[in-house]
Amino acid sequence: MQLYDLDAAATRTINSLAGASAAIDFMMVWVSAIGVPLLVLAVAGQWWRGSGRTRSRHVLVAAGLSFLVGLTINQIVLLFVHRMRPYDAGVTHLLIARSADPSFPSDHATATFAIAAAFLLHGMRRLGLWFLAAAVLVAISRVYIGTHYVSDVLGGAMTGIVAAMLVRPLYREGTRVDQLIIGIL
């Protein structure tokens, strides 16, 4: 069995659950549509959190930078990789409107995993694990609704994690730039 066949089979298995329950379909479409904006709002909402404000703000900025770096990496990947969406290849049936851009990597997975990885890499374990759970749910929802292959969301997750790993040593806590940024508001 080739890797594509394994990827298509895993994708088909997850997507085959779509249509069995209107409530689950609705939830997965909803998670897919507003998961990223909700995570961004959850990160932004931490800005005014009480204790450890300086440390928290540094991590919040690092999460935002990881998000942006991850999506930038995706744009570079898209210059070289033009993967057909699984619904166009007859692998899945789609629950939402068609997308005009290529399938690999998943921007949704990149964005959410970048946020989770930034929190985890900066030692904010409790919040990081919540963000990680949300990222996994968003990634699964993208396959469930038929818009991505499993490997698309795994590639997006890796891009997000790599972005957070790149940001970690480059945006250091306590530097002048860090103090300027976290001093805002």
UniProtKB/TrEMBL annotation:
Keyword hit for Membrane = yes
InterPro entries attached to this UniProt entry: PAP2/HPO, PAP2/HPO_sf
Keywords from the named record? Membrane, Transmembrane, Transmembrane helix
**Coiled-coil region list:** none
Gene3D superfamilies associated with the record: Phosphatidic acid phosphatase type 2/haloperoxidase
Enumerate the spans annotated as Phosphatidic acid phosphatase type 2/haloperoxidase domain: 58-168
Residue ranges crossing the lipid bilayer per the database entry: 27-48, 60-82, 102-121, 128-147, 153-171
* Protein name as annotated: Phosphatase PAP2 family protein
What is the protein's species of origin? Mesorhizobium album
